[in-house]
Specification:
Distance between the termini: 61 Å
Strand order of the largest sheet: 1-2
Mean pLDDT: 87
Oligomer: single chain
Radius of gyration: 19 Å
Largest sheet: 2 strands, antiparallel
Number of helices: 10
Number of domains: 1
Length: 264
Amino acid sequence: MKWISVQPRAVQFSFNFKRKLWHMLGLLVPAFFYFDPMVLLDSRYIHATRIVGLSLNVIMLATLIIVDLLRFKYDGMNDLFIRFAGPLLKEQEKGRMNATVPYLTATLLLFTFTQDLIAGCACTFLMLGDPAAAYIGGRFGRIRFWNSKSLEGMFGFFLVGFLAAFLFSALHTWLISLHFPNALRLAAYSLVGEVKWSFLSILFAGGVVAAVTEFFSNNRLNGFLDDNLEVPILAGVAMATAAWLLGFPVDAILFDPTQLFARA
């Protein structure tokens, strides 16, 4: 078996812009948690946004699981689903689980157990790195491996994902200077001052693990175990581990779910 081959010209590929744009809408999930919109309602709960966000996550996840179970059981339901959602699905998803299910599973776990910044960056790696890998690997990939993925696509995933996470972190640093409440709560992370290089090391660790995970990922358990689940979770674990090794406080890394309904 040949593990690697050098292609003399770019392989033919299909880059579905509408599907990738829909894919990137997944960034709305970490944006909701990070920007903490429920704080405007002056709720008696400290983590009101997290309560609402996790509740919506569970509702959407349960709804999609029920839809998938029904469409796999009834051909008419599957035909109706494909008629409306077909342009947003990969060809393989028409016969297996909707890729949003593993993604929402990942966000549910991340925002239940890790802080917003780590969870948000982990999602960002996937949401922007994955389309970049598909585009760059499809257009410019020459060095290809046994799984048809390319070295160029993997590097594209890392560079775009890391840059996106860096820009998100720069926004976070700016919001700290503006005394934005949720940014101040995670002020241990900043791109200025003594922690700058430590913070960049955390992002680098997350980006590398995300890119490598995406490269080796494949669909198992009817599509549940794929990059939409594995990339954000393993990137989050990598960043949390790096932050802990670099001495960041535990309460800036992990969220204690027992405090979800703590009163203000």
